[in-house]
Structures are given as C-alpha cells and as structure tokens.
Specification:
The chain is α+β, with helices and mostly antiparallel strands. The chain is built from 3 helices and 7 strands. The protein has a 7-stranded antiparallel β-sheet, with helices on one face.
C-alpha cells in the first residue's frame, strides 16, 4: 500500500492546530466551506462532486487526529486513513505536524492528484493556524 506523507512546522501552538483540524470553523478556514458533522462522521463537500467525502473521526487530541474514509466517494479513498501527529517545537511554541494519508493501492492512478491537492492544503492549514485568516482551498 502507498501513502502520502508531509512533515512541516507551524508557528502556532498545538491547541490552534488541533482546532483547525477538529472544529467546523477550523476546517472551513483552510479546506472547504462545505463541512458538516454527525456524531463522529465528518462530511466534506466540494464543488462539482456528486456526494460529500465521509470521514469517520477515530481519534482527536492535541497530539493525534485520525480519520478513516468510510464513504463510497471518492472510491479510491475507501478505507484509507488520514493521520495528523502534532508535537511541540520546544521554546518556540510552534508545532510540528506529521501528516499521512495511507492505504492507497500501489497502482492507484488517482494518488498523484491527491498528493498534489494535499500539498496545497498543507500550505492553507499552516497559514490559517498561524494567522487565523480563513483561506479555504474549496469554496461552495
């Protein structure tokens, strides 16, 4: 199985990064304005797609956020796992993020596009956590 991995530093504490990954205002601040939640299921809607992505929240703390793709769409995300590990950067007060989206079949032709989009999203997440200024990548 293949995975997409990024490691980057954010000049904001883990509480701010966690809020960006775990609250409605946080997720709409950097990813998409189409976010909904029912219990532990997160629904992400994007322009031009037939149905929202459904991700089950499996873990949520200032150290670790984990989601599993449980929806039928997109089919190449089915059963993949998205993990965000956050560690403090010592005296700077910043946060190091290790992002993984794992479980793609090795021959998945859609993985390069997903990797490119996640790269763009990491920049938005970093900017949002540092400034508090919403800049969602996708707007409905």
């Amino acid at each position: 199985m293949s995975e997409i991995t990024f490691r980057f530093d954010i000049d904001a504490d883990r509480a701010k990064v966690f809020d960006a990954l775990n609250t409605h205002d946080g997720l709409t601040g950097w990813w998409t304005t189409g976010v909904d939640r029912t219990s532990e299921s997160l629904f992400f809607d994007f322009p031009g797609i037939p149905q929202p992505f459904e991700l089950r929240r499996d873990a949520a703390s200032e150290d670790l956020v984990t989601w599993t793709s449980v929806g039928a769409f997109p089919p190449h995300w089915k059963d993949t796992v998205i993990t965000w590990r956050m560690t403090g950067l010592g005296d700077s007060g910043g946060t190091q993020v290790l992002f993984r989206h794992a479980g793609f079949p090795d021959s998945d032709p859609d993985m390069p596009g997903s990797a490119y989009t996640w790269g763009q999203l990491m920049v938005r997440l970093k900017d949002f956590a540092e400034t508090g200024r919403p800049q969602p990548f996708f707007t409905l």
